[in-house]
Model the fold of this input.
Amino acid sequence: MEIKTLSLRNFRNYAALDVAFSPRVNLVYGENAQGKTNLLEAVCYFSGARSPRSRFDRELVSFGAPEASLRAELLSRDREFVAEIAVVPGRRRIRLNGVAKRSAAALTEVFRTVYFCPEDLLLVRAGAAERRKFLDGALSQLRPRYAAALAEYNRLLEHKTRILRDWPEKPSLLDMLEEFDRRMAETGALLIYYRARYVKKLSEAASEVHRDCSGGREKLDVVYRTVSGVEDPFARPEELFRLLTEHQACHRRAEREARSCLSGPHKDDLELLIDGKSARTFASQGQTRTAALALKLAERELGFEDTGEHPVLLLDDVLSELDEKRQSYVLNRIRGGQVFISCCEEERLAGLEEGAAFHIRGGAVV
Done:
């Protein structure tokens, strides 16, 4: 899996950019606030039309420009693809090999990435929402059906939240709750079904990575925590639907009183255990970083296991946040596949491996 060329117009601080990349290591260097992260973000955007940094697409469009456009030549499954995305505030248009696509799922079937930034080193100590975001991002690339179910569930959750918030002023809104609960239980069952199976594989892969990085001194486990009424998250979706429906019924009164949605997989979490103890509570700074590294590198390995091709790895200034030992470990684990590494100094990674270097200044390659 590879991105061969990239063209940007009015994307972030890039008025115009046309660049060709190495199939191996691409070093993107330069001073702060020049556009290194924006370049990696643009590459990542082709794996599902989602930004790892922004919730709203309008933030991707250069100030004062009506729209942004991205074009890439991609290599996947021994085939060449041309992907084009036009980002207009409020909507986007996607074309793959000249054919218009209604859904971003068409991109994830062709191109996948693993994006790793300094904020991910806090993944262990952050709240449950950040770990769900990590889980959803990884799964949405691997399973388009999961991505569709997640989008539908989030839409239903937003509507139900509004109903619960406003019902005291408009009691008739409660008439809609039963239908929203049913549909949320249906889509929520799919989320739990996919999440449980992915986390099982993630735990196995991350445990191996963590063991290698820690020199075999520690054991990492990743445990999936979902709705309390679901004792077996590996059950079939039909059974999960029944259990979610029962859990909703038990919390119906509490939800109305709290005026918020208390039941559903939107509260799921990943619990990380180091030698059986909660990493979030007891891990040292070094252990926290090692566990976060293990999660991201395991995500890449599961992507390879699923497709036989390495997802493109994007290391956005993350090496500067690691000590020399962890830097060396990461660089030794990325053999194979295309890699992008951003940093401030070209010399930091001199002699890493044959590839290309790009000096970024003011939204341009100089």
